[in-house]
Amino acid sequence: MERKPFKVQAVANLLGTTVDSIRRDTDESGILIQRQTGDGPKTRLFSIENIFELARFRAKKIGLTPKRKVIMTIYAPKGGVGKTTVASNLSTLFPLMGLKTLVIDLDFQANLSMSFGYDAELTHEQALDDNIPIDKCIDYHFGHLMPQWQASSTPPLNDVIKKPFGEFGPHLIPSEVSLDRLEALFTLDTIMGKNPETTIAKFLYEGMNGTNPDLDLSSYDVILFDAPPAKNQTTRGALLASDYVVAPVSMERYSTKSVSYLAKVLGEMESSLGKYPELLILGNFYDKTRLRVAAQVITLVNQYKDSWVDKSISSSEEFKKVLSSEDYELPLAVAKPSSNASVELRAVAQALVGRMGVL
Amino acid sequence: MNQKKTEAEFNDELRRKFQQDMATKNNGMVMTKPPSTNSKSLEALIEDTQNAQLVNQDGNNYIETIAVNLVDDSPWQPRSRYDEGYIQALGEMLQDRGQDDPIIVRKLPTGRFELIAGHRRVRAARLIGWSTIKAQIVVLNDRDAELATLVSNEGRVDLTDYEKGLAYRKSVDRGFAKNQTEVARLFGCTQARVSQCLSLLSLPLEVKDILDKYPGLFGYRYGVVVSDLMKEFPLGIDTITQGIEQLIDNNELNSDDLRSFVERALLNRSRSPIVKPTIVSNLQGDSMFTVKIKNNQIVIDIKDENIDKNVVNSLMIDALRNLVLSNQ
């Protein structure tokens, strides 16, 4: 499937700069950009890979160095509040800000993996028959990297990680349906008296320290989990490993209540292990025109002043369009860089990066 | 005055009401606050869990009921024989009183359990048909398991002197201790006791073969007598082992019985029967020569002074030469 190329203006929007500096930086970087063919002006046509490479170049040029590395989980016990949408967009926007980003799909339904254009059910044979790159198939998921996974050997990290937008875009550990077996293996460990809850924390700690040369995650500035709505051991493990949990709330009563459940889970982690992620609440699908929404916002802000992220994402038809589109393989933030929703998403990404002290 | 409110005014008013309400009532829901203390770092979490696991190992507080058929003997167990009578008695005791102390095992990667302490209790449990047994599960590597097995079994009653000696020797061979003093500290006994038990290991192979089969046959005091006898009768090993083997059928015999048995057998045999000299006399009946065999010598006494010794000598030499030649 051919992706539509990006013109200079779109690239400038994505990188938050002017058309002029995009042109200048592109020439300076020496990145090879396609030009429009035909008789008209020979306009630059950026591929998505070009954009991320340029973003990395610009970050290097200004000497951008993250103040700290963070692990974050996008999670809310409530379904349908936009966790996967937030995860796919944030993990796309962070590399555009020059941060090396790894996003891990923990939901066996693999919606996040799909949002990057991977099909969990695509087999190698089918891919060959239909002339689809083999890379679009998902052979491994996060479970394969856990010591509990009963395989003869752990696959090399390079075989697990997907790079949907090239080396400089987000890196993805995808998911497919067999990931839910990891939960059964964790449960088995619990029955056997082992403590599987710190397995994910240990994996990330060793990975970010570079102590495990086979599973080296030390180059990433941001590691982001997209957790399923279930309150299970896998989710708990990811939360325990995380510095932050970003809880998207859609503006309705149940969603507000789910934040309270999450706060309780964090409280339990605090009292049993002393380690828990800081809660950040992100208003999603916020509809300013609805009165009840205002009530929810007030409730949340009152109760969770310190956790409230002061940028939120409005309700937008754009999300629905992207989700139902035939060529559903780009997160909205890059599919429609100039849409209002994308502008808001970029503001949220900026706010989070500031809040977490990364930049 | 019935002033009509616009939609916007109505909404604004409602919003103000909500804001007042919500500030105190949380929209009618219980809302839990997130934790407010500082979370520890990922590094601290990992360190703490690892320390907690160590405490678990040290504290040995992990007791479970496990299947008897999953329990294997330790390859390092020094005990080589089990007294069936004792196992039976132990089984009866388990049946009457239940199990007081858990056995100690470590978990193998295969999922089975390897005994550290409790070999006899497991045998007794099998004898009385128990399917499960209470066990303390410890986490030990091979080397620590070996040491734990050696030391724990030694500490328990009625390991024989010979088995103790073997365990002490092993602890040195395997580098757990460098000398007898260290062995004594390791096993919590005196150095003299270590020396006594080790002395059994320097007995000749023939004797140790018997001890391998019957480790409880005798203790170190008896062993001292055996090695004394070996010094007195360097060629008497067969007799000495015969004497020891009598113990197998009659355990009332003691080291004095062994000494008298060996002395009776070996001193008698070495006292050669009194050989009477052959007397060679002349026709008058006067003794001319007496000939006597003494070990490898033939001693000829010349009784008559008139006899020429040189003639007798050459006659003897001739006779011996003829003997040699005729044998060729």
Please report the number of helical segments of chain A. 15
Structural class assignment of chain A? alpha/beta
Multimerization status: heterodimer
> What is CATH's topology name of the largest domain in chain A?
Rossmann fold
Largest sheet: spatial strand order of chain A: 5-4-6-3-7-8
Strand runs of chain B, count: 8
Would you identify the CATH H-level superfamily of the largest domain in chain B? Answer: Conserved hypothetical protein from pyrococcus furiosus pfu- 392566-001, ParB domain
CATH class of the largest domain in chain B: Alpha Beta
* Amino-to-carboxy terminus distance of chain B: 162 Å
The largest pleated sheet of chain A is described as: 6 strands, parallel
Q: What proportion strand of chain A?
A: 5-15%
How would the global form of chain B be characterised? rod-shaped
Gross geometry of chain A: globular
Sketch the topology of chain A as an H/E string, one letter per element: HHEEHEHEHHHEHHEHEHEHHHH
Mean pLDDT of chain B: 81
User: How many H/I helical runs of chain B?
Assistant: 13
By DSSP, the count of extended strands of chain A is 8
Following the backbone from N to C, one meets helices and strands of chain B in this order, namely HHEEHEEHEHHHHHHHHEEEH
Average pLDDT level of chain A:
89
Explain the overall architecture:
The complex is a heterodimer of chains A (about 350) and B (about 325). Chain A is an alpha/beta fold. Helix content of chain A is about 45%, strand content about 10%. Chain A has 2 domains: about 1-65, Multidrug-efflux Transporter Regulator, Chain: A, Domain 2; about 65-355, 3-Layer(aba) Sandwich (Rossmann fold). Chain A has helices at about 10-15, 20-30, 50-60, 85-95, 110-115, 125-130, 155-160, 180-190, 200-210, 235-240, 255-275, 290-305, 315-325, 330-335, 340-355; strands spanning about 35, 45, 70-75, 100-105, 170-175, 220-225, 245-250, 280-285. The mean pLDDT of chain A is about 90. Chain B has about 325 residues and is an alpha/beta fold. Chain B is about 55% helix and about 15% strand. Chain B has helices at about 5-25, 40-60, 85-95, 120-125, 140-155, 160-175, 180-185, 190-200, 205-215, 220-230, 235-250, 255-270, 310-325, and strands at about 65, 70, 105, 115, 130-140, 280, 285-295, 295-300. In chain B, a hairpin with a 5-residue loop joins β6 and β7. The chains are: A alpha/beta (about 350), B alpha/beta (about 325). The interface of A and B includes residues 256, 261 and 264 of A.
